[in-house]
Write a structure and sequence with these properties.
mainly alpha; Four Helix Bundle (Hemerythrin (Met), subunit A); binds heme C
Length: 168
């Protein structure tokens, strides 16, 4: 009885391993991703780290570290986008990249004055400003990834677009 059980386990184990190997090969599109898409994925990772904690009513030291590191990384990555993936024929794209840089820089500044009154609200505000910038550029370019990326978040983004006008 026990041997049968072990044998079954072994077979399933091998089966699992094989399917796992096939699964590893599947996402070929990963390799075909453009350089810009890869940078965007990085930006997304840091943005989401900041967004994830944006509902907290108090940030711990560690949370502030997340804000600080996320924003400084977004600053770096946006500078790469501006330098390597500029589109001189698309002024709106250029402007929105600059906006993303400015908003990420502001977020970093907030983390530097984390002990001042209102810093938490300012940090949360910056997360929303960033999100709006992402959404505006993707919308401008007809990239419909927000509904999938943030399920249920679409309405929120749209209402915030009305709520916060971008600086000229
Ligand atoms: C100024 C324009 C612009 C801004 C601002 C912008 N993006 Fe993008 N984003 C793009 C473009 C262009 C692509 C498509 C890249 C490609 O596929 O070559 C893209 C694609 C993406 C993708 C998909 C990458 C993939 O794997 O295919 C993600 C995720 C993403 N952006 C996240 C963000 C986040 C998060 C922000 C804001 C913090 C942001 N983007 C801000 C222009 C922008």
């Amino acid at each position: 009885m026990l041997r049968k059980f072990l044998l079954a386990n072994l077979i399933f184990g091998i089966f699992g391993l094989v399917t796992h190997c096939f699964a590893e090969e599947a996402p070929k599109s990963e390799k075909e991703k453009s350089e810009l898409a890869k940078v965007m994925d990085e930006i997304d990772k840091y943005y989401k780290a900041a967004e994830q904690i944006s509902g907290y009513y108090k940030y711990s030291l560690n949370d502030w570290k997340v804000i600080s590191e996320s924003s400084s990384n977004i600053v770096k990555l946006t500078k790469i986008v501006i330098r390597k993936f500029s589109r001189p024929d698309d002024q709106k794209y250029q402007d929105l990249n600059k906006t993303m840089l400015t908003e990420a820089e502001k977020m970093f500044e907030v983390a530097n004055r984390k002990d001042e009154q209102g810093a938490l609200e300012d940090a949360q505000w910056q997360v929303r400003r960033l999100r709006q910038t992402c959404a505006l550029c993707h919308k401008h370019l007809g990239i419909h990834l927000y509904p999938q990326l943030y399920p249920g978040g679409k309405d929120k983004i749209q209402s915030e677009q009305v709520e916060i006008p971008l600086p000229k």
